[in-house]
Amino acid sequence: MNDSTRSQKELFQLEDGITYLNCANMSPMLRSVKQAGMEALERNLSPWKILPADWFTNGEILRGLAAKIFQTNENNIALIPSASYGLATAAKNLKVSPGKEIIILEQQFPSNYYVWENMAEKDHLQLVTIKKTADRSLTENILEKINANTGIIAIPNCHWVDGTWIDLQKISDAAKTVGSYLVLDLSQSLGALPIDIERIQPDFAVSVGYKWMLGPYSLGYMYVSKKWHETGEPLEYSWLIKKGSEDFSRTAYTKGYRDGARKFDMGEFSQFTLLPMAIAALQQILKWNVAFIQSETKKLTDQLSAYKIKMGYSTGKDVNPGHIISIPVDGIDIDLLKKKLAGNKVFISFRGAFIRVSPHLYNGPSDIDKLISCLQ
After folding, report:
1. Which residue, 2, 100, 158, 351, has most beta carbons within 10 Å?
2. DSSP string of 147-171?
3. H or E stretch at 275
4. Global model pTM greater than 0.90
5. CATH top-level class for 3-21+290-375?
6. Contact, 70 vs 223, CB < 8 A?
7. Would you say 181 and 123 are in contact if contact means Cβ atoms under 8 Å apart?
8. What is the pLDDT of residue 5?
9. Among 192, 211, 167, 374, residue whose Cα is nearest residue 298
């Protein structure tokens, strides 16, 4: 591990001897995030010191930071508790004629499947599941199924099982051609893979905050296209999203909402403990720069790509981003492998027919070598 990598690792709360290659499951905590949480808990001991403005200030700071990672305006960002919350918000607003199709992926993450399964049953729509094939990339397989009957395309940027990358720009262009809605789950890419959301222009895009966004659990982010700001309906009707809610002396009800995507914020978005933690996390990501995170993690997954080639594993036409890679487990004694990993304190995820490896800046080449040693 070189000095640069070591200095990044020291920013995280990681035990000595641990080889954690599982950021796609949950990120370890940054020391700055822990400190922000501890300080927030101390402040919360004195609720009489919390002023009316404090219910909104950190929300606006976090919204602005998230907007920089999405590469959009802060008015397009809503604060949500989970990806499923954001996807349910999208499904509530997308009106599709009976018989139309919803495109999803085979083995798509459950939270990005159940909502569309429910919508298809309720609104008499057809689910079209895209399968990977050896002769085409996953992007090509999706493009093949987009047609005049496509109503919604609901996909990630990279598959949660094995990290397969999808060209969202090509999908977006095809969606516009046929007049389809586009909904993205960026939980396995936002914060580690650069994205220009204004170029892709989905209707909605969601992400959890506890993976590549390095923040606490139960606080995530949703991009909402401007076309939904006025006509869209929130999933719930919290007092905090209403226009004039900053005035605590008011007792009258109001019809209007706060500006932009704020109308889609979750109830209790003020989150006096979690917001400071998430702010610290996004500040560190922006200090590094997402492109830097991607380039540095790719150096590590390239080691595993070379190992896969050496072992004769087929790569097909699909490509992976730098922060996630998978290795097939066919022919491997899984129980023995799990024992070797546990004995060497190596942490990865088993996903279907693969092990999924997802490093971050706290990892170095020696961590990959340690994993390969276990695999051999």
Report:
1. 158
2. -TTEEEEEEESB-TTT--B--HHHH
3. helix 274-288
4. yes
5. alpha beta
6. yes
7. no
8. 55
9. 192
